[in-house]
Amino acid sequence: MFFPTCILGYNLDIIYLTYCFFLLHKYVEGSSGIFFAKSYGDHMVLQGTPYRAIVWGFADKIGDYVHVTLNNTEVANTTVMADPHGGSLGIWKATLPVQENNGPFTIRVSSSAGSATIHDVLFGDIWFCSGQSNMGFTMGHVLNSTVELKEAANFTKIRTFQTPLTTSKTPLTDLSNASSWNLPNSSTLAGFSAVCWLYGKYLYSHINRPIGLIESAWGGTPIEAWSSPDALAKCKFGSEANAAQAYKYACQFESMIWDWRKKFNNESNGETNNFFPFGFVQLAGNRNDSTYVGGFPDLRWAQTNHYGYVPNVRMGNVFMAVAMDLPDFSSPYGTIHPRDKEDVASRLLIAARSVAYGERGLNIQGPIPGAFIYQDNSLAIYFKDDTNPLDIRSNSGFEICCSHSLDPTFECPLTTGWIPVNITSHQSVSLTLDVTSCIGHNLHVRGVLQEYDLAQLRLVNAIMTWIILTVYFYFCKTEVEGSSGIYFARSYGNHMVLQGAPNRAVLWGFAHKIGDIVHVSLNNIEVATTTVIADPNGGLSGIWKVKLPAQQYQGPFVIEAHSSEGRARLIDVLFGDVWFCSGQDNMAFTMNQVRSLGGFSAVCWLFGKYLYQHIHWPIGLIESAWGGTMIEAWSSNDALAKCTSTGHTVHRANINLPSVLWNAMVSPFLPMTIYGAIWYQGESNTVHADRYACQFDAMITDWRQKFHNSSNGETNSAFPFGFVQLAGNSNDTKRIGGYPDLRWAQTANYGHVPNPQLQNVFMSVAMDLPDFDSPYRTQITSMFSLRIHPRDKEDVASRLVLAARAVAYGENGLDFQGPYPSAFKVQASSIAIEFNQGGSPVDVRSNSGFEICCTYHADPNYACPLNSGWSAVNISSHTSSSILLDITSCTGHGQYIRGVRYAWHESPCQIKQCAIYGRDNDLPAPPFKHHL
């Protein structure tokens, strides 16, 4: 039924990626009449309690009855329905009971056409890891890769799935190419997402239940590609012909998240939570020019939907890892791909623990400003959470916008006209900026900008058992054991992890007989039945789909699906948590590039590894990432619609066409119950970072909705969503570029997550994790390249996991965020900034990093320019919870200070040397800007 496939793409106007797959297809154990969807297989993790997992697939006989067993006990039954898309095979889909037992299970589906079985299935949490290159950045490329890869085989309850890179103009019912769920080892994990793996690893150590990690990332892709048309439709910004210029990221991201949630929920028959947690990574610094602004700051801001933090009112159940302080200017993979994914994953984890898992008492964010107060020539910034004292590591990073206008509605320019200002003093929850450069010139401060980072947690590697999957561009395509009549979808396979309790895992696949009954068993116990239905997309085979009972037992299980056409089997399946790892280059960045595991995403693997050390149950990691891709490619049409108008075209390669990666690399996973998703993308959207806040929010919302709907409600409709803020990528500390704005957009313009816009969202701040020596660079011109692929993915993943523990797993008492301002007090010659978001005292590592915007206009509404006109100011003093910035350069010349910003550069600092950190948690304050 499947044949070796070779794809060569070309076009007279556009040069497409050219790739060729030489595949040998090995079926899930079973007969030819019924089979699982390709995302199911041996060793997988299905979503466990309190959700019900779904299993589904295809069968030949429409109307046939399908029985589903777990370990030989029937737990569900269903009927094969005609494929609604017109496929030749029917589709069956069954919902399993809630599984308290993690497994392993054997799941068997059977009908009159035969049976199919998957083995060694665990029930736990499934996390979907998506984005562009930094999500795709593999374990083989991270720092400490040798050690990480060597230890990988010890973690048998974390399973990974890597989505083959492909595009489609319409949503696919199943993956176009087969992959498999694998156990982790040095060879399979090297090419898996580092952030995704490290997030899962760190998370496991806290929640101690199986974790399934699904990587679906592609380097260089825009958010539009990851958004469905529904998500895109929610962000309308005119009718520009070029799709790369058509969307605001804040809208797109939010729309994509909600759209994903809706569609995952719908396709899983409501089993995937329609509010499932969604984590992402803010863009790390990528240019060793501290004066360069670029598009990164605006995109970071947009990622939080202009809140600067998540979760927020618009991005609920969203968490993130700030990465702007994690540049890697020596990264051989380009500075845009920092190798430190451990910090990213760690930051992502602590947010996930709180947002996604409800762990209480965790300090999951860096300092977040709460108030800005003039004090003579200074501006005091007070941070919200007084349980996390400020750590001032530099007195710079802030910028202010000044104006002669007294109009309080004056709007600061986007980039020009901002003046750097310094921290002159600080206390535990505040800092003061010197704004004399504004006020001293009779200007009025109208804005303040800062870039901030999320918390970092360093963990000692524990010796545990893990299971992981990887897939390469050249691989052997293997079907789960079974006959030709029924089989699992390609995302299912031996050694996979299915989402465990409280969720119910979803299994699905294909069969020839429309209407045939499919029986699914776990370890020879029938647990579900369903009917093969016609493929709604017009495929030749029917589709079957079932929900498994919520599994508390991890497994391993043998899962078998059988019908009248035969049987298909998955072996060594665990139930735990499944995480979906998506994005562009840094999510696809492999473990052998991380100086630690070979072709699997480094961030994805390290996230899973660190997570495992905390949750102690199986983790499935699915990498679906592609370097160089934009967010548009990962967004469905529904998500895209929220941030753009229709009728657009794209000038870039086909991987950046709106929704093409959503269609091919996300949509096939929707029926699967997952626990959450992590995202590392944004570098490709920095040119129009102001649009990212919409795009990111839209994508998260859309993913959540679609995962929830497609899993029949089993995937949480607000599932936790973690992301990595962009790391520094250029060893030019003056360069601004688009990174600061994109980091800001990643938090929906809050500067931190979770926030009201990005709820149940967590992040790993990476701006202080540059890798300027990284050999993995992106060539921009013959004379200029960016090191956007830092190798330190351990720090990235560690920070991500710390956040995940708090946000995604609800771990109490975690200090998972860096300091964030809560108040700004402008004085005659200084600004006091209070930090009270986190629970750790402020650690000031540098007196620079702050800038102020000044103007001679007394109008308080004066808008500071975007980048120009900002003056650097220094920290003049600080306390454990505040800093004081010297603003005499502004106020001393009769100007008014109108804005202050922090870390508003592509690469705001050398590694872990940004100005503000939490003293106890070593987490950087994320970038922020504030109008005064």
Could you explain the architecture of this structure?
This protein has a 19-stranded mixed beta sheet that branches. Strands 25, 27, 28, 29, 30, 57, 59, 60, 61, 62, 63 and 65 form a twelve-stranded mixed beta sheet that branches. Strands 2, 5, 7, 32, 35, 36, 38 and 39 form an eight-stranded mixed beta sheet that branches. It contains 15 helices and 65 strands. By secondary structure, the chain is α/β, with parallel strands linked by helices. 88% of the residues are buried. It folds into three domains: 29-118 and 469-570, no CATH class; 128-365 and 577-816, no CATH class; 369-451 and 821-931, no CATH class. Mean pLDDT is 81; it is low at 1-28, 237-247, 450-481, 645-653 and 779-785. It starts with 28 loop residues before the first strand and ends with a strand. This is Sialate O-acetylesterase domain-containing protein. Residues 125-258, 606-710 form the Sialate O-acetylesterase domain. Pfam families: SASA (PF03629).
